[in-house]
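Record pair follows.
FIRST:
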Amino acid sequence: MMRSDDKRFVLKITGQIQTDYKNFVDPGDATDFNNFLVRRARLGIEATVAQYYEFRLLPDFGLGVATIQDAFLNVHYWDQLQIEAGRFKQPFSYEQLIQDRFVPTLERSLIDQLVPARDVGVMIHGQKLLGDRFDYGVSYSDGTINGNTDVNNSKDVTGRVAFRPLNSEALPPWLRLLQMGMSFNTGADFEAANPAVLKTPAGVPWFTFATGVKQGIWHYRYSPELSYFFGPFGFAGQYLFEDQGYFSAAGVPVRVPESGYYLLATLLLTGESRTTYSQAVVPGQDFDLRHPLASPGAWELVARMSRLEQSTIIFAPGAPRLADPAANSAGATEMTLGFNWYINAWVRVQFNWERAWFNQPVRLSPPTGSLSNQDSLLMRFQVIF
């Protein structure tokens, strides 16, 4: 990091490399293959110019594709009132707003593929209002979920508020980091179904829209959230409801209600603590191979359950049909159990076992083989700076 003597100008280089291995256990799954991959490979620039103007550029070269993840300017005179413009994470999902380098599981939950993520637009936001009890954000953006270029004139409005009503020194410490929040999003899309394929966090496809299905008509989403931290324990939960309009391949308009949730809990066995999931875990003792028992690093247990379900109207017979009921499921549930080993503040190794259940058998062995559940083993080696 470089900065001027008066701290009005700051330049910081950041980086992140995640190398994964995926093993799909079920022999009946002929769609997914065991593989190594570079999930993320990022080298970013963060800068402060003239004290009040913050800039971030974050390209990603993971999965063999070069993309711009973040590219924005934030005007930051006050914590309570800031203006941001460019490509940034939308103020919607607590889980999505966790920095990618700090997510406790290898991948986010089932509902994450439906929430607004990075988009291009402008946002007014603020933190630490009312004695650090209230945060908010409201954005006006293209509405492409996680895209770079809009394909229509319609825009989305997205907003989120978060409350910590018990964050007071007059109350016991175990009460202060209870947070409740609510997000909303609305707009109109006129483009191909996005996402066209719904997958488990491990990447197993369980629903694919028929060729020619398009998004259209007005949509809206809302998502209440709850999180809590105290010492080595952390918890987050979120519910999502979405009402999305589609046009079938025959041009018939169909409204599809979709809903889901996740519950996530973590426990740092070696006694470290965090106050948010967007925070590095710093081991009490960095791992030392010469003294592995005295210097073990930090160990963390992780458990998550999530579910996503669409109305079975997607399988309606005739012209309104959006997907093949013989090959797809209207819903899925997954459970992930994990272990994280923080060798130091910059190096982490993760192990996840994921089991997914499908409402209807999913065709994962064409042309006829189907599975009602699926198991995956996942591993990640991560370096950040």
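SECOND:
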Amino acid sequence: MKKVVVAGPGTGKTYLFKKILEGKSNTLTLSFINALVEDLALELYGLSEVRTLHSYARSALASLTKKNVELFPKLAHVIRQDAQVLLTVDIDFDPLLFNRKDDDEKLRFYSERRKYYDRFGYTDIIFAAVKFFELHRDRVPAYEQIVVDEFQDFNLLEVSLIELLAEKSPIVLAGDDDQALYDFKSASAEHIRGYHSGKDSPYAPFSLPYCARCTRVIIDAANDVIGAAKKQGLLKGRIEKPYRYFDCREKDAESAKYQRLEYRQVFAKQIPWVIATDVNSIAEELCSGFSILIIAATTTQCRSLAKTLRKKGFENVFLTKREDPEPTLLDGLTILLEDNESNLGWRIVARSLLKESNFNEALISAGVEKPFGECVDNETRTRVASLLKKLRQHKAGSLDREELLTLFDELAIDALKESKEWLKDVLEGIRPVAKVAGLSLESAK
């Protein structure tokens, strides 16, 4: 049986999952980012195997092909750089994969480079699983039940994988087209809209209308915004769904106390005071744990807010950091520690250590046939061997202070800068983001 459930915020989606999965032993729950999977894994512990799409694709391919399947998250960036040198064009490969441009010649280049490096990225591992299942439909795994969360943020490639799994197993798709956020990865709310409301959809449509998370004030405000947008001719194609308040004595009392949403415009220096005042008011009223998310325009503003809030006595202040897509020398060396002849490892360290012209020569010379390590000069190979030896010694705890500082210099790691940032964060009470109660600050860009 195929079902699609449209569920707004706080309408009991996770509770529904538990009821659907209850009493079944062989089940699978899928979402698309680690943070969502971590939350679901806790909620559905003991009821279902909970995986990201790329994690599931990796394990399925490894199991079905009996081969070692390794991931390198920055692979698409590496191959994009290769194309700039080998094809003299800049190609963003991810959209080609996201949108199933299977016959595009550019993907042939990507496939050749991927095989040469013997690694998968987060996107092409899903692509590989889809292509494998399309060729071997008899080997698509079967489950007693599959649940798919946040379906509004799936792209065509991810939908292809879900459709293949749905051929063998009962499936429930859950999401909300009003919450679609990930269009940067070619995700489209049109998929869930088509499955829910399409004339020929094989999916039975359902909705969860009652929100138990928010007060009546917030529910009414949300419906007012949606109604006003529709009057202006916006939200065309949106799934029509009720969003209703779930009667609750506690929430009724909260609504009576806070009967309107507030918008305040203040000077930048006043923002920490406003936040502190509101947090203290909430703490005084609730006398229990709670968390607050603050979104600022830039990282600089986040740091400034965190510093000021720390001075006001808030200890649990966390900053999120975004990972740089550029592979580092340490990334390459880490791969070589596991496999000294890895083409990907040698390619990454070569780009880090060689002059651009020399790296380009090595890349062209290697092609997809020659081991990349053989295209690197002896001096660089000797240097890499020395770095690997020092990393092994450091892992064993045998490097002294001076040797460690020298290693940092060779790895282009500014130990003083990193230490200064760490010490500054400690003194300002700023810690890495964690799953605990407190203030979590994120920059919008």
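COMMENT: Residues 432-438 have pLDDT under 50 and may be disordered.
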